[in-house]
C-alpha cells in the first residue's frame, strides 16, 4: 500500500483554513517575542526519527498477544508500513532493523523499496538475548559476559555479522543491548561479567567501520531480575570509554528506575560528548514501551530542553540517533507510532521556544521562580500549528491520525495482507 499525493492534498484541504488561522495567531505571538518562526519550522521538518522494525505488528506480554490484522509478514512490507507513516508525517524517514528478525533476503530489492519511499537505514540492532535455531551455544546465562569463551565468541561474531548486514544497507551504527545479568544473588561474579563484556565489546569495536558508531544501551532489569551487567548510564559510559571514540551511550527512556532524572543524565552525557542516541517511549512503572509522551509529557519536554541546550553548547557531542522503541498491546501499531512522532516533535518544538539565554541569566541570579516561568511558558505553548506547517511544507498531512483513519489504511492493509499475517519482533 502506498499513499498517493492527491490523497494527501484532499485530506489537507479539509483542515487548511483552521490551520492557517491558528498558525497566523501563533506566528504573530512568537514573532512579537523575537522568535524566528520559520527557523523553528525548518528544524522540525529536518527532524527525522527512525521507526523500529520490530514494532510494526502487535506487541505482547507473557500474558498474551492480541493481533492487529494486516500486519507486515516480511521486511519489504515493514518498510512499506514505515513508508505509510512517513508519507503522512514526513518525520519518519528512517528504519532501525533488528537482526535476525529482519535479515534482508535481497539487499538490492530492499534498498530500492526504501529509496522509493525516502526511507534510510538507521542503526542496526544485534540480538544475543534469544537463542537462534541450530545455534551451537546458548545465551541462557548471558552472551558477551558469559563465563564460557565459546558463548562470548559466538555473540561477538553475531555482532560482526550485524555490522556487515548494516554496512550493505548503508547503516552507520550498531546498537548493542544485552539482557546479560542474573536472577539471584551469588549467581554472577559482577567483576568477571563486566570485564568479559568490556573485552567482548572491544573485539566488536575492532570490527566497526571507520565512520560507524557503537551505541551501548543500558537497562536496570528484565529479563534478569537481580542484576544486569549494563544496568545504567554509568556502566554504559564506562564500557563506551573502554572501547573508544566511536562508542557512545544510548538512552532508552523506559530503562530507568522510577523517578530517575533522565534529563540530567542526558545533559551530563552530552557534556562528556558520549550521548549517542535515544529509544523514545514512555512508561509508568517499568520498561512499558508505551507511546512517547503519553504518560510523562513534561519529562519528555525537559529532556528536549537539555538536548536543545546541548546541541547549542556541546559541539563535542556528535549528531544523535533519534529512534522510537515501543510495543503496541492495545493500539494499531501505525497509529501508536504516529502519536509517538507527534509527541516527540511537540516536545522538540516547545524546547525550541525556551529562551536559553534568559534561563541562564535567571539561573545565575538564582531566580528560581523565573527559571520555572521560562520553562513552563514554553511548555504551555500550543505548538501544533508549527508541526502542521512543517508537515505541510514537507508534503505530509496536517493531521496524520485523522488522515490515516479517513483513508482507511488499516482496512486497506487487511484487504492486501489478510488477517493472519504476524510481524516478526517482540
Ligand atoms: C530492550 C530493548 C532493546 C531492544 C529490544 C527490542 O528492552 O529496549 O532496545 O533490542 O528492546
Ligand atoms: Mn530499546
From TrEMBL:
Membrane-spanning ranges: none
Xref: InterPro entries: L-rhamnose_isomerase, Xyl_isomerase-like_sf
Keyword Nucleotide-binding: no
Keywords: Isomerase, Manganese, Metal-binding
Keyword Metal-binding: yes
Single GO MF annotation: isomerase activity
Protein's UniProt name: L-rhamnose isomerase / sugar isomerase
Organism (species): Lutibacter agarilyticus
Amino acid at each position: 500500500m502506498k499513499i498517493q499525493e492527491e490523497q494527501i492534498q484532499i485530506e489537507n484541504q479539509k483542515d487548511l483554513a483552521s490551520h492557517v488561522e491558528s498558525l497566523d495567531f501563533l506566528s504573530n505571538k512568537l514573532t512579537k517575542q523575537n522568535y524566528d518562526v520559520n527557523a523553528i519550522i525548518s528544524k522540525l521538518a529536518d527532524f527525522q526519527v527512525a521507526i523500529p522494525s520490530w514494532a510494526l505488528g502487535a506487541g505482547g506480554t507473557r500474558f498474551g498477544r492480541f493481533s492487529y490484522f494486516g500486519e507486515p509478514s516480511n521486511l519489504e512490507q515493514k518498510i512499506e508500513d514505515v513508508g505509510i507513516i512517513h508519507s503522512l508525517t514526513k518525520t519518519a524517514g528512517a528504519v532501525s532493523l533488528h537482526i535476525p528478525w529482519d535479515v534482508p533476503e535481497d539487499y538490492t530489492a530492499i534498498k530500492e523499496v526504501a529509496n522509493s519511499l525516502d526511507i534510510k537505514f538507521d542503526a542496526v540492532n544485534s540480538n544475543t538475548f534469544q537463542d537462534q535455531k541450530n545455534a551451537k551455544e546458548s545465551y541462557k546465562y548471558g552472551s558477551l559476559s558469559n563465563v564460557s569463551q565459546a558463548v562470548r565468541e559466538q555473540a561477538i561474531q553475531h555482532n560482526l555479522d550485524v555490522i556487515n548486514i548494516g554496512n550493505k544497507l548503508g547503516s552507520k551504527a550498531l546498537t548493542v543491548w544485552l539482557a546479560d545479568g542474573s536472577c539471584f544473588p551469588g549467581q554472577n561474579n559482577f567483576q568477571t561479567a563486566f570485564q568479559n563484556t568490556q573485552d567482548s565489546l572491544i573485539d566488536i569495536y575492532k570490527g566497526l567501520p571507520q565512520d560507524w558508531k557503537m551505541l551501548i544501551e543500558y537497562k536496570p532489569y528484565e529479563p534478569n531480575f537481580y542484576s544486569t551487567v549494563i544496568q545504567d548510564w554509568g556502566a554504559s559510559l564506562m564500557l563506551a570509554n573502554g572501547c573508544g571514540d566511536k562508542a557512545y551511550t544510548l538512552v532508552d527512556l523506559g530503562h530507568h528506575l522510577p523517578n530517575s532524572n533522565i534529563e540530567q543524565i542526558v545533559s551530563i552525557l552530552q557534556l562528556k560528548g558520549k550521548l549517542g542516541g535515544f529509544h523514545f517511549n514512555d512508561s509508568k512503572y517499568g520498561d512499558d514501551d508505551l507511546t512517547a509522551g503519553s504518560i510523562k509529557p513534561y519529562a519528555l519536554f525537559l529532556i528536549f530542553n537539555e538536548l536543545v541546550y546541548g546541541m547549542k553548547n556541546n559541539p563535542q557531542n556528535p549528531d544523535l540517533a533519534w529512534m522510537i522503541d515501543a510495543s503496541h498491546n492495545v493500539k494499531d501499531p501505525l497509529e501508536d507510532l504516529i502519536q509517538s512522532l507527534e509527541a516527540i516533535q511537540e516536545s522538540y518544538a516547545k524546547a525550541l521556544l525556551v529562551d536559553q539565554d534568559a534561563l541562564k541569566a535567571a539561573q545565575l541570579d538564582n531566580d528560581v521562580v523565573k527559571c520555572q516561568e521560562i520553562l513552563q511558558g514554553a511548555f504551555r505553548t500550543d505548538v501544533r500549528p508549527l508541526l502542521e506547517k512543517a508537515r505541510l511544507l514537507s508534503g505530509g498531512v496536517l493531521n496524520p491520525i485523522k488522515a490515516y483513519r479517513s483513508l482507511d489504511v488499516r482496512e486497506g492493509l487487511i484487504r492486501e495482507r489478510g488477517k493472519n499475517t504476524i510481524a516478526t519482533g517482540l
